[in-house]
Design a protein that fits this description.
The complex is a heterodimer of chains A (338) and B (516). Chain A is mainly alpha-helical. Chain A is built from 14 helices and no strands. In chain A, helix 5 packs antiparallel against helix 11, helix 7 crosses helix 11 and helix 8 packs across helix 9. Chain B has 16 helices and 19 strands. Helix content of chain B is 33%, strand content 22%. The longest helix of chain B is centred in the N-terminal third of the chain and has 30 residues. Chain B is globular and about 75 Å long. In chain B, the strands form four sheets. In chain B, strands 1, 8, 9, 10, 11, 12, 13, 14, 15, 16 and 17 form an eleven-stranded mixed β-sheet that branches. In chain B, strands 4-5-7-6 form a four-stranded antiparallel β-sheet, covered by helices on one side. Classes of the chains: A mainly alpha (338), B alpha+beta (516).
Chain lengths: 338, 516
């Protein structure tokens, strides 16, 4: 079964190289066309105009753009993604230090979105044709229209300020230190045998992950509902009824498995948007992830960071889509036989 | 036949989910209440900006100087009235020609690792480091240093290649923190950034990028033990989140919250809100050509602005209207000089040049949006004030970083709303920078003002220099080279029983905080 996905992964890997190359070209040229001055931003406020000009020459900003790109590409192929203009340290170390936090939040968020989406989809399917359908439908549209940053503000107001049930800044309680490890705090805490850190990290993830999950779940609900309606017209469902199976068994053991496949594909696409959505959520929750780093980089015209973070987002989305497509292949035996 | 998901099953599924959340919620509630319990020997500060690095000489980021000042010391300090006071340097004397500065260093000061602080560290920080490969901003501020002669472990003489009349002020300003020579050369910049060592009243014990800074008191501090043992900075960049954090008690003090929120939070029983004028000026940077080539148009633009109204509308009346580009209480200020709000005079001046409400003068106008509180709102209000007298301003929003790009390319519009902070209060770091044709801040390129400003950089005598800045401040305003607007304010909300020492430049120093 696993062997059947290897050719897919191989093809995706080759395609990813080309995609990353194209994305890097687009990012580079768009960023360098922006009206920002990285040379000025990399010097202190009392630098003279002459010093800024000299810095521009030192940074190669006076060279033609294609040549600047080739210099950058050559450095990247040697593992050098440059030095942050603002932090003045390796961009790779900054991104590597913050990426796990964002992936952790995004992963938990997509799980929440998936669970809410599946439960919601089943509820929407259950009430079709009934009196409650318009109300539940309206509810799902209302959920769809509220973006993740608005959920974030609502949750802070309700659970952070009014009820004071949950923290809404950072990743850990103030008296705790980050355990050494991969940066995936939940895993690092368990491996370090620190359940207190685990629960603190989980507490800090609840509000931002629910904000993201709730914002992205309505689409999953509605797609699952539509898929179930389509699947219920299939002959094998009628056959199952004729065989005397209960409606519950038909839904959960036959229809849902097939109806879930389009939903799975959607979740792969949704993850890309969700990963991008972490940017605003991280700023609102003061969550020290890649999004927070990116926002600072934009403010400071820190082009090396923006470039690598842009590529990092691209890589994560490519990986997730490959994983989703592989799962699709594993779950659908018909595709494996082709 | 229609499908019937058994209600019991559905409810069971939802119930399991809700039960799980409820259990987590109860656990978190108990945990949170414990966390929110106030420790009297600790303070948590919600701060909007993280340090770019732990090497304090590396980057001039004004908002984090109050954090650096807890871990490191500067040669000179400032008192709340901004006068220079001894710090690591106990005595200093600037030569009459400002080509040298003799300093005597405090004896018995130790770095956090126990190494003594001596004149060798002073020389390393302000001379040797600047010759090396480290990318540090102090290379610019101390570019005039040609050598530092170490006469004894506690005495040194800084020598300058050209007059440096503001060297003492810069010893108390951005980036000028003494770092340990031995430790820095052994550990390197990267090692120092991982584990910084200073002489300050606190030591760094934990740092999470863009999240948290935890400091613990240095009980051997030469200046005496700080009242609070443990200081935690929660880095909260979003203003709404800072408001939420102070209101929920997750932090004990925070700054840079919207002015209207200060008014609201003041009514909370356990919170005190403050709007404090500081050394930041809000002004219009002006071109001397294009639509602003005509003196009448520039002066009319200034007379048309009702600064009291701007202060009342956007800063609850706490921002002081300015007639010069320096703040009250600082050496370059002119308490008796007023540039009047006079829309009738503005119309007369415009009429002399053939403009009026029926035939308006047209200019470009740029403003940031969110760079400082109410920036874009102020710009829009000014556009309306100008319209009433006969100036049509085409307002565009720019990022702060774009200002420099536009200035470099000579593409700035006629007027740009700008704000400038100067913790020293010295007029060189106000007018000397804002109207300096060689630095990237000035939109005004006319040498009538520019030459005078450049000359002032070389005047060694303090009184003569200050008198010169007073003159140029008045001249620049009277000729429309600058349009000062307001002294900006700092908004701060704290727990009522937390006190701290107020500085005129807005410093909020944790080593002056006490629980009352």
């Amino acid at each position: 079964m696993i062997a059947s996905v290897l050719p897919l992964i191989g093809r995706r890997l080759l395609a990813s190289i080309l995609i990353l190359f194209v994305v890097s070209v687009l990012l580079f040229f768009v960023l360098h066309a922006l009206p920002v001055d990285p040379a000025a931003m990399s010097l202190p406020p009392n630098a003279t105009i002459a010093e800024i000009e000299a810095k521009r020459r030192e940074m190669g900003l006076d060279l033609p753009l294609p040549r600047q790109y080739l210099i950058w590409l050559s450095q990247v192929l040697h593992g050098d993604f440059g030095v942050s203009i603002h932090y003045r340290r390796s961009v790779v170390s900054l991104v590597a230090g913050t990426l796990p936090a964002t992936i952790e939040m995004a992963a938990l968020s997509i799980v929440i979105a998936g669970l809410l989406g599946v439960v919601g989809g089943l509820v929407l399917f259950h009430v079709r044709g009934k009196r409650e359908e318009p109300l539940i439908d309206f509810g799902s549209i209302l959920l769809l229209s509220i973006p993740e940053f608005l959920w974030s503000l609502f949750f802070i107001l309700i659970f952070g300020v009014a009820l004071q049930w949950l923290p809404f800044t950072g990743r850990l309680d103030p008296d705790m230190r980050l355990p050494h490890g991969s940066g995936f705090l939940l895993a690092d805490a368990l491996l370090a045998g620190r359940p207190d850190i685990f629960w603190s990290a989980l507490k800090h993830l609840i509000l931002p992950c629910f904000a993201l999950g709730l914002a992205f779940s309505p689409t999953i609900m509605r797609v699952l509902r539509s898929s179930l309606i389509d699947v219920y017209h299939e002959d094998y469902v009628h056959m199952a009824r004729l065989r005397g199976l209960s409606e519950r068994r038909i839904l959960l053991h036959h229809a849902l498995k097939n109806a879930f496949l389009p939903t799975l594909s959607l979740m792969g696409v949704q993850f890309g948007f969700l990963f991008g959505g972490t940017l605003l959520v991280e700023v609102i929750f003061s969550y020290p992830g890649l999004g927070n780093l990116m926002v600072d980089a934009v403010r400071n015209a820190d082009l090396p960071i923006i470039q690598l973070v842009g590529l990092a987002y691209c890589v994560v989305v490519l990986i997730i889509n490959t994983v989703v497509d592989s799962l699709y292949l594993l779950l659908n035996p018909k595709l494996r036989q082709r | 036949m229609t499908f019937e998901l058994e209600r019991r099953t559905l409810l069971r599924m939802l119930g399991l989910g809700a039960g799980g959340l409820g259990a987590a919620g109860a656990g978190t509630l108990a945990g949170c209440l414990a966390a929110f319990a106030q420790e009297k020997d600790a303070v948590t500060i919600g701060w909007p900006v993280d340090v770019p690095a732990w090497d304090p000489n590396q980057r001039f980021t004004p908002e984090v100087q109050v954090i650096y000042k807890l871990v490191f010391d500067q040669p000179l300090g400032q008192n709340p009235k901004l006068d220079l006071v001894p710090n690591l340097v106990t005595k200093w004397e600037l030569a009459k020609d400002a080509l040298s500065l003799t300093v005597e260093l405090r004896d018995g000061v130790k770095f956090h690792n126990g190494d003594p602080m001596t004149a060798e560290d002073f020389r390393y920080t302000f001379f040797e480091r600047l010759q090396g490969p480290d990318k540090i901003d102090t290379k610019n501020s101390w570019r005039k240093v040609s050598d530092i002669e170490v006469q004894s472990p506690t005495k040194a003489v800084m020598k300058f290649s050209s007059p440096a009349p503001t060297a003492p002020q810069w010893l108390a300003f951005l980036g000028s923190y003494v770092v340990p020579k031995k430790y820095m050369t052994q550990a390197g910049v990267d090692g120092f950034n991982q584990k910084p060592i200073g002489t300050g009243p606190y030591k760094l014990v934990d740092y999470q990028l863009n999240a948290r800074i935890v400091l613990e008191r240095n009980d051997d501090y030469w200046g005496g033990r700080a009242p609070i043992k443990r200081v935690t900075f929660e880095i909260i960049k979003d203003p709404s989140a800072r408001v939420a954090a102070i209101q929920s008690g997750q932090v004990d003090l925070t700054t840079n919250v919207p002015v209207r929120e200060v008014g609201r939070l003041q009514h909370e029983p356990n919170l005190a809100g403050e709007i404090n004028p500081i050394t930041r000026v809000i002004l219009l940077q002006c071109r001397n050509d294009q639509g602003f080539a005509d003196d009448n148009v520039r002066l009319a633009a200034h007379h048309a602005i009702n600064k009291d109204a701007l202060s009342k509308a956007f800063y609850a009346g706490a921002a002081v209207p300015l007639s010069v580009p320096v703040t009250p209480g600082t050496p370059g200020y002119l308490p008796d000089f007023r540039f009047a709000y006079d829309p009738a005079l503005a119309k007369q001046l415009l009429a002399k040049s053939g403009f009026g409400p029926d035939k308006p003068a047209t200019i470009g106008f740029a403003s940031t949006n969110g760079q400082f509180p109410s920036d874009y709102d102020i710009a829009r209000a000014i556009v309306q004030m100008w319209k009433e007298v006969g100036i049509n301003a085409d307002l565009q929003t720019i990022e702060y970083s774009k200002y420099f790009e536009l200035n470099r390319g000579d593409k700035l519009p006629e007027a740009t709303l700008y704000s400038w902070d100067n913790a020293t209060g010295d007029p060189e770091i106000y007018t000397g920078y804002l109207l300096n044709p060689k630095l990237p801040f000035s939109a005004w390129k006319g040498m009538d003002v520019g030459a005078k400003v450049l000359d002032l950089f070389n005047i060694a005598d303090y009184q003569t220099r200050i008198a010169g800045y007073k003159d140029i401040n008045k001249y620049a305003v009277e000729h429309g080279a600058t349009i000062p607007l307001l002294q900006s304010v700092q908004t701060l909300v704290r727990k009522k029983n937390l006190s701290y020492e107020k500085y005129g430049n807005g410093w909020v120093l944790a080593n002056t905080m006490k629980w009352g």
